[in-house]
Design goal:
By secondary structure, the chain is of the alpha/beta class. The chain contains nine helices and six strands, in the order αααβαβαβαβαββαα. The longest helix is centred in the first third of the chain and has 19 residues. The protein starts with 6 loop residues before the first helix and ends with a helix.
């Protein structure tokens, strides 16, 4: 007797995946023959910020076929978020483990995206981003070093980095790390009646120079003080991004 496998037509997960892929293939066949859907699906997209920008950029990415997305955010879901940030719901404003606070944004966004797109690989990282002008005390130094290492490891694993945080200061360090590891970095910002989308260029292989810290000729002076987030960066990263002057390189014990 003849048999027909109807599993793809009966399994909701497989139907959802095939329908999404069909939309992408239709765009490729009719309008964008050079669209590399397989490359888009395999790219690791790191989204720094899981708020209004992070939620909407994630939706745009999955609609174009991205299937490997990591969120990084240290914030918690507040009552004003669900109306603007579509990956969150009212129930996320209260964490069962701590009813006085909301659920972690990055972890919640990753979980919700996985429920919307069945075959997406989505992870959340609740890590703060060290910022210029925020001094690091001796008691916090090791913790901040670990956070910097985690942030750099995440950026190093990325194929493209999106800066989607809510302040300029929090974008500074990730942009330097993207330069150091030669990762495409897309900066997106919103104002009341304006917006900005800017792609930072990838430096040539073996090229020197790069952005410098405020306060003069490198990362060791100016308003940064004796210890700042930049001095906690691995020496190799600081050298690549121009955070060490020639004098600092000679005397830096790291």
């Amino acid at each position: 007797p003849r048999k027909v496998d109807l599993t793809p037509f009966l399994d909701p997960t497989k139907r959802a995946i095939e329908s999404a892929d069909l939309n992408l293939n239709l765009m490729k066949w009719r309008f964008l023959p050079d669209l590399d859907t397989e490359r888009l699906a395999s790219m690791h997209c790191v989204l720094l910020g899981s708020g209004t920008l992070g939620c909407n950029v994630a939706r745009c990415l999955v609609s174009w076929g991205a299937r490997n997305i990591s969120f990084l955010d240290y914030g918690k879901v507040s009552f004003s978020n669900p109306t603007r940030q579509w990956l969150f719901e009212f129930e996320d404003c209260s964490d069962p483990e701590n009813p006085t606070e909301g659920r972690p944004k990055a972890l919640t966004a990753a979980s919700r995206l996985s429920r919307i797109v069945p075959n997406v690989v989505s992870k959340g990282h609740q890590i703060p981003i060290p910022m210029p002008g925020h001094p690091v005390g001796e008691s916090s130094e090791q913790r901040v070093k670990n956070e910097v290492a985690q942030l750099e490891s995440l950026i190093e694993s990325a194929d493209v980095v999106f800066l989607l945080t809510d302040s300029r200061e929090s974008r500074w360090l990730p942009s330097l790390m993207s330069v150091a590891h030669r990762k495409p970095c897309i900066n997106v910002a919103l104002g009341f009646d304006t917006f900005l989308v800017m792609r930072h260029p990838v430096p040539p292989e073996g090229g020197g120079g790069g952005p410098r810290a405020p306060g003069g000729g490198g990362g060791g002076g100016g308003a940064w003080g004796a210890t700042s987030a930049t001095t906690l960066l691995p020496r190799q990263t600081r050298a690549k991004t121009g955070l060490l002057t020639s004098n600092a390189r000679r005397h830096d014990p790291a």
